[in-house]
Amino acid sequence: MEILTIIGYSFLILGAVFLFLGALGLYRMPDVYTRLQAGTKASTLGAIAFMLGVGFLQPDWMVKILIIIVFLTIANPLSSHAIARAAHKRGQKPYTKGEKDALEIDEHNAELSTEKEKQS
């Protein structure tokens, strides 16, 4: 076998493993925030590895695949951040073991400071 073929199939297997672990993380994690974290990181790495595998198997496609990889590395974290913010604004509580939600505390303190400014 040619070396590019071996590298390509190795990346395909690595990508499939990361995608499987991401799906497993979606199934196993307790709340929306940890599911987003597990799904986003694993699916991003899995998709990147999978596409690199295809790029090594089809070298003519490598430039297009690299452009797609750049788009993925920007779009996946941004979309998961937007989903997490929407879930938090909707009131979805994170799974904690008695700890306070830091974002909720910050938002509450900001509301209190704006109310004090309006009163004075």
User: What is the tally of helical segments?
Assistant: 4
Annotation, overall tally of beta strands? 0
User: Which regions have little confidence, pLDDT < 50, spanning 5+ residues?
Assistant: none
Report the end-to-end length measured between terminal Cα atoms: 77 Å
CATH architecture field: Orthogonal Bundle
Look at the structure and give the mean pLDDT.
86
Task: Return the string of H and E elements.
Answer: HHHH
Structural class: mainly alpha
Shape: elongated
Oligomer: single chain
Question: Could you walk me through the main structural features you see in this protein, from its secondary elements to its overall organization?
Answer:
- There is one protein chain.
- The protein is mainly alpha-helical and 120 residues long.
- The protein has one domain (3-95): Helix Hairpins (Orthogonal Bundle), CATH 1.10.287.
- 82% of the residues lie in helices and 0% in strands.
- The protein has 4 helices and no strands.
- The protein has helices at residues 3-28, 32-57, 62-90, 102-119.
- α1 packs antiparallel against α2.
- The longest helix has 29 residues, at 62-90.
- The radius of gyration is 21 Å and the shape is elongated.
- The model has no long low-confidence stretch (mean pLDDT 86).
